[in-house]
Give the backbone structure.
Amino acid sequence: MSQPTIAVPTPKRPQGVDRTQLRWPLGFTVAAVVVVVFYGFILPFLVPGVRGWVQDWLPISEINVALIWAMSALGLNIVVGYAGLLDLGYVAFWALGGYTTAWLMSDFGFGGKVNFNIFGSPGAASTTGIHLNLVLVFLAAAGVCALFGVIIGAPTLRLRSDYLALVTLGFGEIIPQIFRNGDEDGLGFNLTNATLGIGPIDSMTFVRINRGDVVVGKLNVFDHVGRFILFSLLTALIIFVSLRLRQGRLGRAWLAIREDELAASAMGVPLMRAKLAAYAVGAIAGGIGGVAYALHLGRMLPDPFTFAVSITLLAMVVLGGMGNVWGVLLGALMISWFNSTGLPQIGDSFNSAFGTNVNFPSFNFLIFGGVLVLMMLFRREGLLPESRTRLVLHEGEAGDTQAEEPEQELVDETTVKSGDVK
Amino acid sequence: MSENPTTVGQPALQADDISVIFGGLVAVNKVSFTVPEQSIVSLIGPNGAGKTTFFNVLTGLYPAERGGQVALGGRDVTGLAPHKIASLGLARTFQNIRLFNLMTAEENVKVAMHSHLKAGVFGTVIRAPWQRREEREAHDFALELLKFVGIGKSAYEYARNLSYGDQRRLEVARALALKPKVLLLDEPTAGMNPRESAEFVDFVHRVRDERKVSVLLIEHDMSVVMRVSERITVLDRGEKIAEGTADEVRTNPRVVEAYLGSAANDNHVTIDDGEEAGS
């Protein structure tokens, strides 16, 4: 075991990962600019037939929704894909981010009791409520979600896999329930206006250059292109943070925990701290998704925050490729589009073609479940898997049929005494 | 090493009155044990003697019961979490290799530097200059360690793709990345052929001399144990039954008895399979 080091030149560090880090912002920007130019400047001037087709099959509002899903899914990817902690209650952070926005950017002000404005953009007649600037709202939502990530994580992260998943499931139910019942009847004071929800949420302020003049104005509720710019920036930010963290000290610790918790702790990785960090960072991304959601809807209602959201997010991560941001992004965009636009449109086409009257969107979980089963049977690693995962899954499959030849060889070579090689 | 200066004159590792009780079973009973600074000592004993359990107390996986104490370089580490003990300078390898299989060899080693690195979330995200320097140094140190154990050319291979022997080396490199005072090797020659085992003896000496650590071995291959160890402690059924140099232990009647009269005979004592829980 000790031969003096032979003068073999150390191989160069593989550069693939680093290069994509340089390239992707360019591709992402190009894609975003294309969308903005197309929907903002070209689409209105197309012939009505084509315009109608695009608005039916790929409306910009649904692209925005898909980006909201993507932000949250990317956050969940940090928890599930990077650190390997199964979280079935991720919807809680989405709701928290959304309600933080509603509290800080509307006339609500906890029943009109609070009233102040920090660089906010209140409605014309607004005299009550908290109106913070959007930037501050993002910071606040990130802070609230990180805090709750730690609060939820601290007692639960000591649990292993299945138990952790169940407890997160519990939190994912509790927090939306609080929002759903958060009025005088439920809580004793008006926290969330219960099922009536909070709204309208202030419009975004934006700066526009109009023939050389700098114009400060409000974003129209229907200005989806304006929101698209913001949402794609946020998505890019989350991707950037995910990629950077992955390559650093914390990302290595997360991977190590995912691989072998006990060995990681024996190598000096503080399990609780690393897991809490994953939770907090993931929660922040979920919260940002929540803020975006609130901005998109212009109103916060408790109804959308169901268990199904957590499951859908998880499916986006798993189908797309756990641990790989590009896979997760693809999975989120695809599934979101399919749910909101693809399935109803396919259904309509089907119905009008065959004269039937099938309600396709009601089958979405059936189709979803079927796709998940097929994926798990034939492509467990997801659409765009992380290179590491692809490695192990494919060799595993080969091993089923051909007996793991390479490993066997090594064992023969090195083993004289039997029994110890496991 | 520089981060964990050993108090002068203190043994690298001292365990006093360590007991472990599983239900009603006393797995380890009041075992005391010392690893002098920069020494190579071995812990041997028949299957089920409590060696790995004892190891697990030292590394903090099991609590020491009945007032047992563990001190690392003069500092009491009893009851600390495993990662804390590890970062204070007690590194280990595992009986059945536990590498991070889907990480490269270099990444495996860098994981173990976690406690010596400082980069936080913010520094990592903005890739601050201090963080980049730290990463570069970690990278260089990882390559240095991989070269030291002889697998520098496989630095970017996934751990699972390394050969069995290389995986064992990688485990040692990873443990050394903690800059430990004491290196615990749990059956490091398991699965090696006699030639490799012989080379391993030199390797352990080289680790001790060049990395300035004390080495504590659990080992079944008596030829290795007798050649490499400066002191040997023998456990049987959770009790310490003998301690001393190789010759002293070899001739100790209680040891001979524990090993069914074949203390120095390789054939009867090298085969070990799936003993002791927890590893």
Q: What stands out?
A: Chain A touches chain B through 52 residues (CB under 8 Å). Residues 325-354 of chain A form the longest helix (30 residues). Strands of chain A lie at 115-118, 129-132, 205-210, 213-218.
